[in-house]
Design goal:
Distance between the termini: 12 Å
Protein name: Glucosamine-6-phosphate deaminase
Number of strands: 10
Number of helices: 7
Largest sheet: 7 strands, parallel
CATH topology: Rossmann fold
Organism: Clostridium omnivorum
Shape: globular
Strand order of the largest sheet: 1-10-9-6-2-3-5
Helix content: 25-40%
Strand content: 15-25%
Enzyme class: hydrolase
Catalytic activity: alpha-D-glucosamine 6-phosphate + H2O = beta-D-fructose 6-phosphate + NH4(+)
Bound molecules: fructose -6-phosphate
Pathway: Amino-sugar metabolism; N-acetylneuraminate degradation; D-fructose 6-phosphate from N-acetylneuraminate: step 5/5
Structural class: alpha/beta
CATH architecture: 3-Layer(aba) Sandwich
Order of helices and strands: EHEHEEHEHEEHEHEHE
C-alpha cells in the first residue's frame, strides 16, 4: 500500500484526478470504478476542469459505480446516479450509456446484483477503482461484520453510516436503510485502487487501514493484500500515521 500525503484537499483532488487522466490518455477505453460521497467531489470538479482544458477525452471510457441506495430512483437528488450525473457525467463527454450505477429500484435485486457483476466482467474488469472510506472502515457499503461478500449484494446500512449520511438528507428518517453495493471481491479484482480520505475525522480509520490488522470488522483493511493500492490523504487524515508508513510522492512512480 502506497500512502501519499497531499498538503490539502485541493492537492489531494488534483493528484487523484490526474491519475484518472493519465490512465484514460494511455487507455481511452479504460474501465473506471467510481465512488460518491464528499471526498471525491473535488476530484470530479478537477476532472471537469481538465476536460474543459482538452486534457482528456472520455468518449470511449466506461464507468461502474460502487453503490446505490435501495429505493431511490436515479432522479432523486440523493441517489448516487443523480450525484454522478450532476458532479461529473453531465459535464464531460462520456457516453451516459456507458456509465453504470446499480439500479436501486430494480424489481429483482438479486438479478440486478448478478447482472452488475457480469457486466463488469464482460467489460474486461475495472482498471482503476476510486474509493472513499467510512469512519467505520466501510468501502462501498461493505459494512463491518463477521462476514464479507464477494459479489454485488444488497446490504443493511449500519447506524454509523445512516448517521454519517443523514447530513445529505432533510432528516435521518429519510436515509435509506439498505443499499446495493459491489462486494469486496469486485473491489479487489480492480487492477489498481485509489483510496481517498480527507480531514481529521478520517485519521483514526486511516491509521487502522494502513497500520492495523486485517479484519472483517474493518472491511477496508483487506486492501492491504492488494498489490496496487494508492492511498491519497491530506495532512489532517494522515495525522495519526507513523512516519515510516508515509512515502514521499516524489519517490513513488504512480
Ligand atoms: C460512496 C461509498 C462510501 C463512501 C464513504 C465515505 O460511493 O462507497 O463508501 O466512500 O462513506 O464517504 P465520504 O466521502 O462522504 O466521507
Amino acid at each position: 500500500m502506497k500512502v501519499i500525503v497531499a498538503k490539502n484537499y485541493e492537492e489531494l483532488s488534483d493528484i487523484a484526478a490526474k491519475q484518472i487522466v493519465e490512465l484514460v490518455s494511455e487507455k481511452p477505453q479504460a474501465i473506471l470504478g467510481l465512488a460518491t460521497g464528499s471526498t471525491p467531489e473535488g476530484m470530479y470538479k478537477r476532472l471537469v476542469e481538465l476536460y474543459n482544458e482538452n486534457k482528456v477525452d472520455f468518449s470511449k471510457t466506461k464507468s461502474f459505480n460502487l453503490d446505490e441506495y435501495k429505493g431511490l430512483k436515479g432522479e432523486h437528488p440523493q441517489s448516487y446516479r443523480y450525484f454522478m450525473n450532476t458532479k461529473l457525467f453531465d459535464h464531460i463527454n462520456i457516453d451516459k450509456a456507458n456509465t453504470y450505477v446499480p439500479n436501486g429500484t430494480a424489481e429483482n435485486i438479486e438479478e440486478e446484483c448478478l447482472a452488475y457483476d457480469e457486466r463488469i466482467t464482460a467489460a474486461g474488469g475495472i482498471d482503476l477503482q476510486v474509493l472513499g472510506i467510512g469512519n467505520n472502515g466501510h468501502i462501498g457499503f461493505n459494512e463491518p461484520s463477521d462476514f464479507l461478500y464477494m459479489g454485488t449484494h444488497l446490504t443493511d446500512l449500519t447506524e454509523d453510516t445512516i448517521n454519517a449520511n443523514s447530513r445529505f438528507f432533510d432528516s435521518k428518517d429519510e436515509v435509506p436503510t439498505q443499499a446495493i453495493t459491489m462486494g469486496l471481491g469486485g473491489i479487489m479484482k480492480a487492477k489498481r485502487i485509489l483510496l481517498l480520505a480527507s480531514g481529521e475525522k478520517k485519521a483514526p480509520i486511516i491509521a487502522k487501514l494502513v497500520e492495523g490488522k486485517i479484519s472483517t470488522k474493518i472491511p477496508a483493511s483487506i486492501l492491504q493484500v492488494h498489490s496496487d493500492v494508492v492511498v491519497i490523504v491530506n495532512e489532517a487524515a494522515a495525522s495519526l500515521l507513523k512516519k515510516n508508513s508515509i512515502r514521499n510522492i516524489e519517490s513513488i512512480s504512480l
